[in-house]
Amino acid sequence: TSSATPEGMLGTLDAILDDVRAASLDPADVVRARKRIATGTLRGVQRIDQRAALMQSFVAAGHDPDWLDEDLARYAAVDVDALAAFVREHLPRDRRVVVLAEPQGAP
Question: Where are the alpha helices (DSSP H) in the chain?
Fold first, then answer.
């Protein structure tokens, strides 16, 4: 199946999630992702409007507005095993719904 088709993209996504479930990711990739998230978050709080939006998202999630340190600590704690456990628990293949939609009038 071509990866340019919806079915091919689903196959690619399944292969990636299977790798994550099996905890076969490169730990260095996880570290790089954690650093990207932390850097992006810290850059995002440089502007007052973005800082206000982040603080509001913390409040909306039931946290204190100054929850930034705890939020960054959550990401810092993620490793290959934590990702694998999350995907196994929350993204099992047998509990998903896949919708393949075509634009109206498509052949």
Answer: 6-21, 27-44, 48-60, 68-76, 80-90
The C-alpha atoms of residue 85 and residue 22 are separated, in whole angstroms, by: 9
Q: What is the pLDDT of residues 3-33, one digit of tens each?
A: 688 889 999 999 999 999 999 889 999 999 9
What is the pTM assigned to this prediction? 0.72
| Residue 34 · residue 76 · CB < 8 Å | yes
How many CA atoms lie less than 13 Å away from 84 in the CB half-sphere? 13
Q: What is each CA distance from 87 to 2, 12, 75, 84, 98, in whole angstroms?
A: 25, 15, 15, 5, 17
